[in-house]
């Protein structure tokens, strides 16, 4: 699968993944105001965001034909 996530998109995904991951951990620890069921959901979202940032590929972007990576010359937002 070719890369379709640009550098700015990677930075945003990393930041959002870190914040959502911290919220998941806070919920697991009982510190966060969210119900306990939200912790695993937030954890999966955080892992997905961090994985797509690390690999530079997003399955949803591929399905929709979107690319924020300027390397292929067809960046669309």
From TrEMBL:
Arranged from A to Z, the UniProt key words for this protein are: Membrane, Transmembrane, Transmembrane helix
Under which name does UniProt file this protein?
Inner membrane protein YgaP-like transmembrane domain-containing protein
The transmembrane segments are 12-31, 37-64
Domain Inner membrane protein YgaP-like transmembrane: where? 1-71
* Protein source organism: Halorubrum tropicale
